[in-house]
Amino acid sequence: MQITDDLQKLIDILPAEIQQVLETHPSRDSLIEVVMDLGRLPEARFHNQAEYLCDEPVSQEQLNDCIERVGLFGGDNRAGIERTLHRISAIRNRTGKIIGLTCRVGRAVFGTIGMIRDLVETGQSILMLGRPGVGKTTALREIARVLADELNKRVVIIDTSNEIAGDGDVTHPAIGRARRMQVARPELQHQVMIEAVENHMPEVIVIDEIGTELEAMAARTIAERGVQLVGTAHGNQIENLIKNPTLSDLVGGIQAVTLGDDEARRRRSQKTVLERKAPPTFEIAVEMQERQSWVVHVSVADTVDNLLRGRQPSPQVRTVNADGNVDIVQQSPPVPIAPRQALGRAWQGEERIDDSSLSARSPGWRETGKMIPMPQVTKERLSGEREFERLLEESFGERDRFDFHTSKSAGPNGEDLPLHIYPYGVSRHQLEQVIQVLNLPVVLTKDIDSADGILALRSHVKNHSKLRHIARVRQVPIHMIKASTIPQITRSLRRLLDMDEPGIGDERELSLFTHNGSEDEMDALEEARLAVEQIVIPKGQPVELLPRSAKVRKMQHELVEHYRLKSDSFGDEPNRRLRIYPA
Q1: 320 forms bridges with which residues in the sheet?
Q2: CATH code (residue 122)
Q3: Residue 189 backbone phi and psi in degrees, to 5
Q4: Three-state DSSP class for 243?
Q5: Average pLDDT for 94-118
Q6: Are 314 and 331 in contact (CB under 8 A)?
Q7: 142 and 210 share a domain?
Q8: How does pLDDT run across 134-169, given as a tens digit for each residue?
Q9: SS3 at position 382
Q10: Are 188 and 303 part of one and the same domain?
Q11: What CATH number is attached to the domain comprising 576?
């Protein structure tokens, strides 16, 4: 990297006593700023330390002397030094008199955007986030130069405080061929942004410190006109912008949405949720955590959607190693992710459609192991604003309730529970009944993209080539059963979950075969159960049951099938009855 700072010009405006100390200071090249407050000792701040420069407090005469050597202070209480990037900020008392100065060193660092140069060249809008002093404006200046000089684009800089292109009418060489528009007063920045697009035909607009709602709206207007935006905003992470009502529009804005019953069940959430309102103004966001370590969200829309649903995004972490090369690491959720097609092992002994030669799909959110049931919320009457804030806090609070060090509930192949099953041709009512009665960790879904597997009737699958094609392309295995009966559904779900078959006399499973729980039904099922468990299985003898109605006989047939035995109905109505055969 090449650094240009014109540090001597900043030192020359300081009092003589401070100049002498700084000119011979061993850490002079790492100086960040000099702070002078009336009646207090002058202080120099470096990257890792701060120290006093002399033993005499700063006097009003010294402050006045410094003020005379710099340019005029604007409406934002900032001034500069001609043809430099240094910034002098003033602190005033209640009458407007300057009683403190912050003299910040401005440096042009060439080569700072090597970590994101590939993103800059895509033409997408980029938002830089980070705490004050981390180097946002320095990176912005370098991006403007690269876009103008190396990519030959028409770049216009909206320079509110003359901090990007330096003080004075002649711009600093650090911005290259980019043009600069100055802003008379900070509150007019949004107007100058629109003026730049309307009058000067830019391909790229560079903005520093977007901080008001009007500026956020102007940025959206510019982006919708097809102009690339590169800007900065104060905030360490995207979460800070989402929670900031003034700047949330930069990442798409948020709104409360009421879901339908089916959609709420599919998401396993409450009916009122927060969702992104519009496409983000900036497609890419860069969180500048440290000078040599940046977190990059290549899709702000996906990141915001994940955060609002309580999910952990997976951004890139880009760092510069000792050799000066850029290392890119994709952040993954803390819990290991199992591929969706690993479910195949649980379906031994059954026909299924699978294609191991297809490439693995990128896992969805459930596979990250961080989805847990929504908390029970106490219902109370809240104002619209308070309710919105509560939903917002809940969206971000979801991740705080996960303990990444505890073991997660996992299926037989490491997949996370509950399993999401897409039923096709199978009775949804029977499936829900089995899941509820046996308390199985299975969720039915109407979205094949979010399914871990498809449970379908064999006859339906054979005649539906489109379903087989979709399953192959999306790597969702199909598990087939011959008939939509309680026993076959129960066995198929147990295989999916790699569960052992229940012991004889499991009352929960017997309750599955009753329709309305009448006394006649219960007596008939109890008769069949006793016949199977006391005669057919232990003694190997066939048994005939008492005559029953067709509806009750059907339930008895299903119960016998549950024990993996065969049965037939014989005789004439009203004396038609069941005969159970040993295996």
Answers
A1: 326
A2: 3.40.50
A3: -60, -40
A4: helix
A5: 88
A6: yes
A7: yes
A8: 888 889 999 999 999 999 999 999 998 888 888 888
A9: coil
A10: yes
A11: 3.30.1370.50
